[in-house]
Structure formats: structure tokens, C-alpha cells
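tl;dr need the bound structure. longer version: we got a ligand (calcium ion) that a collaborator sent over and nobodys looked at where it sits. i said id run it. heres the input, straight from their email, havent touched it
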Amino acid sequence: MDQYVDASGLGLGFALWQVGANGMTTLVEGATVPRNGTTTTYTVDATLEYGTEYRWRGRGVLDGAYGPWSDLATFMTGPAPPPPPPAPMVPSDPQAVYIAIFESDWSAATHPTDYTDNAHYSPMIGATHNRSVQFWQNGMLATPGIENMAETGSQSPLDGEMQAAINSGMAGSIFRGRGLAPTPRLENVQFTATTDFSYVTLVSRIAPSPDWFVGVNSVPLIANDEWRQEIVISLFPWDAGTDNGPSYDSVDVDTVTAQPISLLQGDPVVKNGTVAPFGRFIFRRLQ
Ligand SMILES: [Ca+2]
Ligand SMILES: [Ca+2]
């Protein structure tokens, strides 16, 4: 413990203890400093811990002789401040341009049962949106927009449903692509996603068919705070649950009580006992 005295030889000694959870005290710091007028201040060098009890006391020092210690004084340090907020969970780029590639394998080789020479797909339609809206979903009843898309290939009124989501702040943009005719074939469509609308939904009708379509619902384009570079999704056939025809060229048999959207099973989409995918969507970031 260093000792200092002022010109008159009078100094003050201080000692500070930390009180542990078990009540044991540990000396944190002690010092002797020159007297400074009527108020002598000492600032400890040690960094004190949050939410911890400390005790201290002082005594006079004169020419190396010590007076009696004062009574112990006690104080409590304040609670720890809240941790800093986590870094924002958004990519540094506020938007990203994607190309959606629709690569169809559908042919007499992939789906030989009842294969039709007229096999094609209706024009693609999609939207960017947030988690507050789903335009279709496995187990959900088809909206009028999904029903008409799946039964006739029309982009309407699905585009109206997407526009309504834009108007209510749940979707960012609608994008439309060409159909695929004939198949197998490739088509693509570009769109721009933003951090506010970073999910993508895209559908196209399997045609001809009663009410079958390929599509994805709410694909997240951001992962680990970054725009995803490439996402490949196999396309299994969905049944919109709104027409009962059993095969591609069936005449319209409107379903009296609509059924939930479900994965299409059995003939004619099965080959060697399993449903064969019709192709894939590839979402690739361009910029
Ligand atoms: Ca119908
Ligand atoms: Ca059906």
C-alpha cells in the first residue's frame, strides 16, 4: 500500500471489499492518498461487477501513523445493462434479383400412364411476399384463384388475390412467365425480392388435367442473414381438390364439396410405384 501525505503530512487511507454470494469479503483495492481540503476523493482502479455488494472504510494517516478505521459503509452496484440487441437479421443488400427456372421433365418416359401428346403447362405466375400471407398451402382449400389456375391455367383471379395482398402490405410484387409447351422444356421468369418481401410463391398448371398443378409456397429467399444463391425444388403434382377427373384428359367433373389441396397420388402420375416429379424450380440469384 503506497503512502502519500500532503504538505501538512496528513493523508487518508481507503480500503474496498467485494462481498461474495457466500458473505465472504475479498479485498479489492486499498490506497493512501493526500488529504485534499475538506473533501478527499479516491477513485478505485478496479472494475466493479454489476449487481454486487461492496464495503469500504477509511482512516486518517499522519507521518506513517494510522488513526482508527471508520465504520464500514456498504453499497450495491447497479444491475447489468441489457445485452446489446442482436445484429439485424437482414442481408446487407436490401433487395435481390432472381431468375426462376422451370425445368420440366414431364414426358412419356417419366409418366407413361395416359401420357398426352398435348402435355404442357400454363403461364407461370408468382409473387414475393412476407410470412403473413399464403396463396396456397398443402391441406388448405383452394382459393378461387388457385382453383381457376389449376383447372384452366388462367392467371386470374389469382393475380387479383396477389394484388390484394400487395394492397394490404403483405406482398411486394407479382411476376408472370410463359407457359411450357411442349414439355420437356425450360422456361424462366425474373423477379426482384426485398427484405420486406423475401418469400416467393410460384405456380403453373399441369395441362391438360382436371385440377393439377406444380408450385411452391413461401420459399424463403434469405437464410443465415444472406440472400440464398440457389434453391432447387423438385416439383411433385398437387391436386387443387376442386375437380374430380381421374386423368389428364378427363372431362370436367366439378367437385361438389371442395377438398383440401393435397399431393396427387396414384395413377396417372405414378411410375414404378412412386410419384415421379414433373421437374424442378431453380431459384438463382442474379444480383
Ligand atoms: Ca372447380
Ligand atoms: Ca382433383
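gonna send this back to them w/ a short note. The chain has a mean pLDDT of 92.
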